[in-house]
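With this grant's support, the team has encoded backbone shapes as discrete tokens. A representative record is reproduced below.
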Amino acid sequence: MACSPLLMAQSSMTDQQVLEYVKQGMSEGKDQRQMATELARRGVTREQAERVKKLYEQEQGVNTSKMSGTEQNEARLREATQEESTTSVLENPQPDSRELAQENQVFGRNIFNTRNLTFEPSVNLATPPNYRLGPGDEVIIDIWGTSQNTIRQQISPDGTINIEKIGPVNLSGMTVSEANEYLKRVLGKTYSGLDAPDGTLEIRLTLGNARTIQINVMGEVIQPGTYALSSFSTVFHALYRAGGVNEIGSLRNVQVTRNGKTVAKVDVYDFIMKGKTQDDIRLQEGDVIIVPAYEALVQISGNVKRPMKFEMKKNETLATLINYAGGFSADAYTRSLRVVRQNGEEYEINTVKEIDYSAYPMRNGDVVTAEAILNRFTNKLEVRGAVYRPGIYQLNGEINTVRALVNEAKGLMGDAFTNRAVLQREREDLTTEIISVDVRSIMAGTSPDIPLQKNDILYIPSIHDLEDRGDVAIFGEVAKPDSYSYSDNMTLEDLIIRAGGLRESASTVRVDVSRRIKDPKSTHSTDSIGQMFTFALKDGFVIDGEQGFTLQPYDQVFVRRSPGYQAQQNVQVTGEVIFGGTYAMTTTEERLSDLVKKAGGATSKAYLRGAKLIRVANDEEKKRMRDVINLMNRQFGEAMMDSLGIRVEDTFSVGIDLEKAMAQPGSEYDLVLREGDVLSVPKLNNTVKVNGAVMMPNTVGYLSDKNANYYLDQAGGYALNAKKSKKFVIYMNGQVARIKGRSKDKIEPGCEIIVPSKKNKRVNVGEILGYASSFGSLATMFATISNLIKK
């Protein structure tokens, strides 16, 4: 997983922390790939990992330089596996990102640089009997029976262990099996029971900690060099440590040299293809692994299961290449392959037949292409239209005529138009011709049957395909207004039933049907564009209108809404009234004073001047709101409007004066109510708020003889950025007024004085108020503006 530059830049891990993290993770047995991914996630770069690797190597060098030879061997044994894994993680803190298109990849080349396949030797397996001991190996000698003892020692650099009462015993170069037999003879001098025929005393040598060996990986690998590996390591693990082969390295001829002699030749393809591991031998001290350049690299593309490049050995054939590629894909043309070959001067094309695949040797640079089969049929027939099983059929000895094909398709459907079918035929030059077919006569046997050819398409139309049936539609006061498929003899009542019946609000005295004018024989245009029929209904049946009337395709039915139908309309009153709650309106002219009277009148604590009316916005009002906001967006910009929080809302506040409405019922102050209105009658609030560009926003007790300046003084006076001439007041009922001069009449209980700020240069409050007036007394708009200004 690649790290983002931001995450890498924010890495907070020091080099020492990275080193400690890797050491701890290895001691806890964490997966190397997980640790590498975590380091990359924490921002550790490849450069930092290289620094930490050098730090780790220096640390190991300092520590071992102060030890004796035996101590150094012990240290190497303890840390051999950990060091190998630690450097592996540090060398690759980020997963390999070398990705190529599959056809450009060389098969098997990535096997030694994947994080999931390390070939690391397991430390939990029993010691193989043929394991050859050497300096640095820790051996455990267990003695049991009539005597009990355990000897645990490390083979010294001179190849010996020191056994008490016996002295140095040379084990270097012996296999574990040979060492067991040798120790029986040596220890038999001290433990006499070892030679007893009854086996009263037994001895067994096993390996404790394996030694570290040094091997050299040379040739065409990513990172050639000398590597310290566990003595259990094999050729594949060494190749993994070296990063795998490079772009010219061979996977088919990896050589292991020991003491100047080649002891193994490894073909990695045998492991990948067949799972063979006998050539993946265990390495010994001083072994040299040589990866030569490949002899031949061949590419196969097209319709094979594994299109990519493959390394080929001498005398391997095209059949071998196909096997390496996983065989042909299902749509491959297998009878021949195209090979592009270099002849030393230029390219040449060879077409290799299937019979020659096993005898055609591959050469370096060959490019093989497997084509796809042709996208055509040798014996296809098709029948479409009014048969029970339309589709594709086989042209054979039984199905080779029109009658046989129709019978194979399970016969004609009832709506089949049999007087004339269409047979589409492909000529030799791939053009098509149309042949008319009298299916009725052929099926009846009165006309000769027509022979079929490959790729013939027989189309038998339905009578419905040949006429424009259309739909009928119903609108208005029905349960499911929609378009419905037309049927012969469909009546108005039938369509109403299909639409779920009439709604409660439907008018039964007028149902209109509109019909388009159709005159296929007309030779001139007319002014008429349609016909209209009107009907009356009773109990779902037509009682007035054209008798025997049936619908025609494309008719439109309109069920009108009864003008006398009215659903209940409710309004609500809350606050300081005797009986607050929801009330049903009884007339379309019900007013504020009527609602208060229904609620038993106002209480003695009611403050009628502060009453507020909240109204639900209808579609027209919302449209006007959107129009105003769009206009303001163009004037001030969307960013300004977003910051003001001005938006289309479902409700708005209507400025009212309930005190005057109650005093003058039916007057212009006594507004007509609308469904959903909520009238809120508050208690007297004898305070005044001061907000905006003042020294200290404050709430002050209301005094009837004080003007605006008094309340502003109670807030510390104007701030430096105050627009003194633009101050205004918002009343409890939602109304807004400018404050001019020293008038005290503008100040009422519960109101809020707002002083705008000069910093809002981009928007003029007066302009916004002017736009907002288009809403029709939308006090909510002004409250939003005041909240913005005081921020």
Observations:
- Residues 293 and 750 are 94 Å apart (CA to CA).
- The mean pLDDT is 83.
- The domain at 570-620+634-681 is CATH 3.10.560.10 (Outer membrane lipoprotein wza fold like).
